[in-house]
Amino acid sequence: MAGKPKVTSQSRNGIGALSGEEPGSAAQRDRRRRILDATLALASKGGYDAVQMRAVAEKADVALGTLYRYFPSKIHLLVSGLAREFDRAREKLDRTAIPGETPSDRLIFVLSRNTRMMQRDPHLTEAMVRAFMFADTAAAAEVEQVGQLMEAMFATAMGIDEPTEHDRAVFHLIADVWMANLVAWVTRRASAADVAARLELSVRLLLERPAAP
């Protein structure tokens, strides 16, 4: 089994540090952290519908007006929460040897591990995935951050320091397949085994050339 490919923080996916370097004062960063903690805690208990702006403000101990200045809607809240979850997953990858003989094997491992992690908290996953799928141009920055973090994880798994346009196109397709299958899982149209099988098939079809006849 191959060890984790080396990808430096500067070259990782051409993105560098993402949400690890949040702007603002220490107090602002702490307030943002409390808001996201409250959002994810409410979502974990009751799913998408449980995340109400007033409830988040009360749980995070911030004024409702302050909450709206940081996050204009629950879509912004939940997509930002998804970005934070993916950023933490990316940080774990940086400390882990990714098993697998080929880029396909390593990417399947990363997708499978993150999918299992999300499936352990179905209410939270339902809330974050629904918000991501509902997001429009008003939350474009948050959606873009999620996309960048997925791209960073995929590039790390595959050992790619500087993705080409083709690499990015592949990453986008895999991300679309991943999100679509998570939607199918949270709406009970697909089992966990179905999701795992579809992800593996998609990766192998995209990345592996068929054997010569």
Automatic annotation (TrEMBL):
Keywords: DNA-binding. Residues 52-71 bind DNA. GO terms for molecular function: DNA-binding transcription factor activity; transcription cis-regulatory region binding. Residues 29-89 form the HTH tetR-type domain. Gene3D superfamilies: Tetracycline Repressor, domain 2. This is TetR family transcriptional regulator. Signal peptide: none annotated. It comes from Amycolatopsis taiwanensis. SUPFAM superfamilies: Homeodomain-like. InterPro entries: Homeodomain-like_sf, HTH-type_TetR-like_transc_reg, HTH_TetR, KstR_C. It comes from the Bacteria. Residues 1-30 are annotated as: Disordered.
